[in-house]
Structures are given as structure tokens and as C-alpha cells.
Amino acid sequence: MSHSVSELPDLSPDELALAARPLEEAWTLPPAAYTSQAVYALETDRVLRRSWMPLARVDQVPNPGDYLCLTVIDQPVMIVHGKDGEIRVMSGVCLHRAAPIAEGAGNRQLFTCPYHAWAYDTAGQLVRAPLMDGAKGFAEKDCRLPRLRTEIWEGFILVNLDDDAPAFAPQVEGYRKAFENYRLADMAVARTLEFDSPWNWKVLVENFMEAYHHIGPHSETLEPLFHARDSKIPDADGPYSILHMPAAAPHGEEEGGLPMIEGLDDAQKDDLYATVLFPHFMLAFQGNAAIWYQVLPERSDRFMLKIHFCVPKSSTGLPGFDRIADDAAALLTVIHTEDIGANDIVWEGLKAPLTGQGRLSPLERSIWQMNQWWLARMAGDGAP
Known about the structure:
The protein is an alpha+beta fold. The protein has 9 helices and 16 strands. The strands form 4 sheets. It has a 6-stranded antiparallel beta sheet with strand order 11-16-15-14-13-12. It has a 4-stranded antiparallel beta sheet with strand order 4-3-2-5, with no helix packed on it.
């Protein structure tokens, strides 16, 4: 059944109509789109649970028995590289009395619940349930951890909580072709930074997707290298947006740093690209690496952010690579610390009683593209 945006809680039809105008006339989403718990509850149902979410990269679980645990929309999950070579994403909750059976990351052949010692193999099959004699009709072979719908794309392990959602890869084929020279599937996570983020997840996505704010928080870091005024956002043929930030001057390879990825054109070597595959699969590309911003929403006002610095696998064996990776992580921390300050003040303002919608700049076209997709999904439009 299709739903009108006029039915959305805490959001008036007039406010939504302003956000839906053509870019040259468009306004931001209303503050309640970020701050309202009722909006977040509906957003969880219509957007987050029905979208493809990247949980890990294949290189993070390279060997049989490797696992990594996360929580996805209140659901504990385990990403497990099975003994049979298959990578599965399964519920991390015991089938007995609902205790989580693992946490963190590591390598195991069995996942044993700490509560009553029920044990599962790397395919999620129950193989041991102590002291269950006398439980009529119970058989270990009939018990298997539920699996989440999974797709592996360019080295990323994605899940969707909606079994009826369209497959991911066909929707983003245009995006894949645009960035195929970077050979994402051949990259590995070199460093990961974690930030507990006390704002709505859309605040971060919007900040990531515009270079307009380079003139403010990044005036001494990114703006001298990538001028805000030169940024551009092309049309997209799928549920994604691409922010292209041309370099102020060619810089090529930096001495002592990572080598350029082979096969890139001149713009790809020098320029910076920030992209989002809706709703919050964020990737930035530069000439020698990619940066994955992983968002794990928790509430309307909080999410966990993991920033992964990804490099070609061939770069990880270079002399001095650990120092190079540490330096890159330190720079990412500086840049994101500047963004934290920006997001903090936006979040403070969004919660103020007199705050309304603001006009979008043409430099914020990516935000407008995201808003049109979000409005359609929130209205109950099931299209990709």
C-alpha cells in the first residue's frame, strides 16, 4: 500500500513540500526529521530495515573460522567465514534463552553460549545442547541460527533485513563503473577508527556529502587543497550521489607515502570524491586509498561510526607501511574532529524550538538528491 508523505508523524505536508522542490528552490528537511523519535521509528521500518547495509569487508574475515560481531538495528549478528568457505551473516542470539553467544572478533570452530553452553558450528548449526534429555520433540539437527540476506559486492559484505528488497548490485552498476579503476575488491582495511556519535545519522551523511563547509571547519585542512567553490555533483542513475572535489593543484604521488593505484586517470589521481550509496554507505576515494565511513544507527540521536582506511593489498607489504597507515589514521582523526565540532553545533541548533528549515545551496545538491530518495521511501514508495 502506498502512503502519502502527509501521513508522516511530526512532519507537516508544507514542510515536506519545501524539501521536495527542485534544487534551485529546495529547503532542508524539517528539524523533526532528525530529532523526532516517531520519525526515527518509521524511518527504521521504511528506510533502514529495507536498505542494504555494509557490515564488513571480506578481508576482515579472510580465514575459515574468522568472525566479527555487530549489532544491526537492535539485532546482534555474527559475520562468520565458514569451514566450507562460505561467508554468512547470522543472528548472534542463542536459540535457547536468547543470550548473545559471541562478541568482538576472532577465530573459532564453535560458538558456545556462555549461559547454558549450547554450541553452534561456523554454519550456525546447533551441535551441542547439554542436558536436554526428556525435552519431547527436541533435536539438535533441527536448530540453526537464522541467517540474514547477504550480498558480497566489491569486497563488502552487505545485508538487508527485507527479504523482498531488490538486489543491491544491479541498482549501483553505474556507480561501480564510475569507480572501477580503484579496484575496491582488491583493497584491505588497514586501520579502523571508532566514534560514538551523539546525533542523528543523517547529520553526518549530509556533512560528508557537501564541500561547502570546507570554508568553515576545514578552512586550514581541506579548503586549501579542495576549494568548496569548485565542487560538483553529477546526475546519478541509481540510489547514490557523488561529490567530486577537484584538486586546487596537481599533487601526484607524495614522497614517502603510498603509491598511486595503477590505472587511474589524471582526475582520479589528484581529486577527492565523496560518495554515498543511500542511505548511509559512504565511501571516499583518493589516488592511493579509499575511506569507508560505516554508520550503525542506534537511536534517533545516536549512532556508532567506524572509519576504515582501505588500501590496495599490495600496499600493505611496503617498507614502513605501519607508519604510513598510522599517519593516515592521525590525519583522518584531525579531519573528523573538525567534523565532530560541526555536527555538534548543527545538532544543538536542530533541537532549538525556533529552528525551521533552511535553503539549500546548489553546492549541496547531494543532500537534495538524498532527500528526494528519503522522502519517497518514507512515503512508502518501495522503489530502489
